């Protein structure tokens, strides 16, 4: 009989993507897939691999008999409940920010550092933030070959990074501006949203429809956003380069799902575009879409719903030695969240 897996937060944007991923797998190792959520969603019935599963309430006893518990819930819920699951004998794989930088919690991207999943003194494994994660398969592969030294990143982050409320808000804003003469002189997006009854109680700090917003997360010291610091700190931990130079600017764009990143990556060894293309084309979880003459490059619209990370626009920086420019797109709900969490669970299950 296989291990028992629990999905905590099964009814959220990431939880439901997790169920889609499980449904699409040819086979799964689990003898039971337990769905868990807060009182608001407990009792709902969801289909998993063709069978009705009733969502159970998040309470300590729900982890009895569970081997691996996947958490797709806000930081404060994970902070409280992942240790409870671990104390009841489960390996907790957590997709929140609660444990990512804890030195006793590995931060795992299976293509890059699967070996770290075995060293989990707290019984907890963390899944990276979706923005960092979107470039990790590519950066890990290039680092192994060319020795990464510095990253300068600008993100183009989708609304679903803010969960279902982010998706709902962007869709409502798009409906409010559709067909209206706004976004040019004399047409004010904010006024159109107000006219449509959309208040300022948005997951985003400015209108997102017809706009780009240079902010994601919360305010940290010296004007940095929490999201930008996550890109720096998590990249260092995952790649195992404590002194990696990283500078990020995180931007929200009116895309529903799939984060994109423009990456300026400097290496310690000589790197060529052809060499990078060869390395990336050999990775099973990367799609190389890099033929500008044919108009082939990654866009979120191509990548949404896809498991691999797509990479293109690979150029040798003209004024920076051993430096490449790349454009990377990854579905933030799949590889950026649910898929990577599930792949960690598969890695752990294989070792039980
Ligand atoms: C965002 N990266 O896009 C965050 C979510 N984890 O908002």
From TrEMBL:
Q: Which residues form the signal peptide?
A: none
Q: Look up and give the organism this protein is from.
A: Pseudonocardia dioxanivorans (strain ATCC 55486 / DSM 44775 / JCM 13855 / CB1190)
Q: Which pathway does the record list?
A: Amino-acid biosynthesis; L-lysine biosynthesis via DAP pathway; (S)-tetrahydrodipicolinate from L-aspartate: step 2/4; Amino-acid biosynthesis; L-threonine biosynthesis; L-threonine from L-aspartate: step 2/5; Amino-acid biosynthesis; L-methionine biosynthesis via de novo pathway; L-homoserine from L-aspartate: step 2/3
Q: Which family does it belong to?
A: Belongs to the aspartate-semialdehyde dehydrogenase family.
- Alphabetical list of SUPFAM superfamilies matching this protein: Glyceraldehyde-3-phosphate dehydrogenase-like, C-terminal domain, NAD(P)-binding Rossmann-fold domains
Binding of NADP(+) occurs at 11-14, 40-41, 160-161, 332
Enzyme Commission number(s) from the entry: 1.2.1.11
Protein name in UniProt: Aspartate-semialdehyde dehydrogenase
Q: Which GO terms describe its biological process?
A: 'de novo' L-methionine biosynthetic process; diaminopimelate biosynthetic process; isoleucine biosynthetic process; lysine biosynthetic process via diaminopimelate; threonine biosynthetic process
- The residues responsible for catalysis, as annotated, are 130, 259
The record's listing under NCBIfam families reads: asd_B, PRK14874.1
Assembly and partners? Homodimer.
Q: What is the lineage of its organism?
A: Bacteria, Bacillati, Actinomycetota, Actinomycetes, Pseudonocardiales
Q: Where, by residue number, does substrate bind? A: 157, 252
Q: What residues does the Semialdehyde dehydrogenase NAD-binding domain cover?
A: 4-120
């Amino acid at each position: 009989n296989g291990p028992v897996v629990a999905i905590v937060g099964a009814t959220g944007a990431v939880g439901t993507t997790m169920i889609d991923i499980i449904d699409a797998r040819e086979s799964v190792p689990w003898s039971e897939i337990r769905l868990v959520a807060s009182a608001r969603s407990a009792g709902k019935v969801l289909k998993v691999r063709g069978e009705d599963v009733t969502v159970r309430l998040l309470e300590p006893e729900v982890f009895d008999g569970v081997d691996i518990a996947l958490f797709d819930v806000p930081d404060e819920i994970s902070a409280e409940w992942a240790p409870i699951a671990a104390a009841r004998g489960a390996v907790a794989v957590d997709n929140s920010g609660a444990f990512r930088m804890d030195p006793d919690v590995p931060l795992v991207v299976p293509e890059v550092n699967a070996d770290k999943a075995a060293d989990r003194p707290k019984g907890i494994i963390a899944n990276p933030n979706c923005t960092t994660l979107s470039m990790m398969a590519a950066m890990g592969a290039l680092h192994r070959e060319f020795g990464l030294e510095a990253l300068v990143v600008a993100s183009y982050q989708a609304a679903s990074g803010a969960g279902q409320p982010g998706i709902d808000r962007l869709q409502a804003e798009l409906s409010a501006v559709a067909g209206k003469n706004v976004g040019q002189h004399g047409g004010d997006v904010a006024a159109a949203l107000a006219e449509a009854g959309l208040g300022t109680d948005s997951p985003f700090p400015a209108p997102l429809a017809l706009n780009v917003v240079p902010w994601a997360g919360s305010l940290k010291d010296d004007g940095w956003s929490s999201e930008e610091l996550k890109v720096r700190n998590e990249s260092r931990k995952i790649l195992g380069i404590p002194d990696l130079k990283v500078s990020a600017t995180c931007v929200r764009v009116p895309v529903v799902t799939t984060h994109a990143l423009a990456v300026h990556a400097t290496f310690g060894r000589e790197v060529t575009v052809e060499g990078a293309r060869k390395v990336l084309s050999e990775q099973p979880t990367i799609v190389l879409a890099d033929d500008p003459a044919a108009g082939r490059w990654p866009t979120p619209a191509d990548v949404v719903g896809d498991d691999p990370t797509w990479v293109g626009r690979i150029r040798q920086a003209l004024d920076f030695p051993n430096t490449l420019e790349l454009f990377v797109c990854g579905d933030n709900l799949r590889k950026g969240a649910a898929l990577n969490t599930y792949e960690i669970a598969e890695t752990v299950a294989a070792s039980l």
